[in-house]
Amino acid sequence: MIMRRCYDRARKPGKEVRLGEGEGRPAGPAQGRRRLSIRQLDAFHAAAQTGSVTEAAKLLGVSQPGISRLIASLEWGLGLALFERRRKRLFLTPEGRLFMEELERTSLGLDRLERAANDIKQLKRGHLRIASLPALSLSVVPEALARFLQAYPDLKVSASVQPSQQVVDSVAARHVDVGIAQPTGARSEVRAVATFGADCVCALPPDHRLLRQDVVRPEDLAGEALIALPPHTPAGRGIDRAFEGVGLLLSPNVETFISMTACALVAEGVGIALVDPFTAAAFGDRRIATRPFLPSVKFDVQIVVHESGAVSRPAAEFVRILQECFSKTI
């Protein structure tokens, strides 16, 4: 501990005092000081709590001379006398009490940081931002979010519904952590972590004659009122090719970008639609019915994240749950 006799013995004429050896009086600012060390602060804190070099040494598992050297180097580095020695006991000086108060406030801040790090590790703190194309916003994504929030109820979630190109743009701009979209072409800022493929289905009113068939083909739809996705969408292009393959021209009565709108129109008896199976399943058998459509028209979906690879823990866990939901649905 810092004892005046220790300092007096250390100061000999012509001897240079070096920081860290417990030498020199803590009077006035020292030139070229080193930064405070955790060991110095631990030694100071233990001595202040116990009032004894011996007890501080026992508390920290350090030798008594080691405790004295650490506190001496701390006092010299600070340019402050932190302790007084009376009757083999250590007492904080007024400056020592002020320093102790600041150290305890700092310790509380470090405790908060440690708790925050633990919360982050256990997914009790954080913010998950996702964006999904409309077709997945009624079935797979809500199911995955429900499972995610059941497991991690303290996390904040922001979910938006956007066209596939906007989903990819949002991921590229880091506005969202995870995107669910149809393939839109290669983009350097974005990478796909998983791709799932499903076949489009024929959505029919519950009492339609084509429900007597096991499969619906393009020629079966001649003369029917058709609701179709635009030809510039991936599914729309596939449907056009399916009709062209048998020499038919697709001429829809209604064209809509969103599959849920197409299914809602089917439920109202407006016509027949070729849509992704996820949206059709969300409407249920009582509102619409479905049959497989041949030739197959693929509806591919990708889970995309930023190319940097710096995926947050909440995002990584949500992707895992989302993949499980996709695998179960397809």
Automatic annotation (TrEMBL):
Domain of life, per lineage: Bacteria
Record GO terms (molecular function): DNA-binding transcription factor activity; sequence-specific DNA binding
GO terms, biological process: positive regulation of gene expression
Location of the region described as Disordered in the Swiss-Prot/TrEMBL record: 13-32
SUPFAM superfamilies named among the record's database cross-references: Periplasmic binding protein-like II, Winged helix' DNA-binding domain
Occurrences of domain HTH lysR-type (ranges): 36-93
Basic and acidic residues composition bias: residue spans: 13-24
Gene3D superfamilies noted in UniProt: 3.40.190.290, Winged helix-like DNA-binding domain superfamily/Winged helix DNA-binding domain
Keywords, comma-separated and alphabetical: DNA-binding, Transcription, Transcription regulation
Family according to the record: Belongs to the LysR transcriptional regulatory family.
Protein name (database record): LysR family transcriptional regulator
Organism (species): Propylenella binzhouense
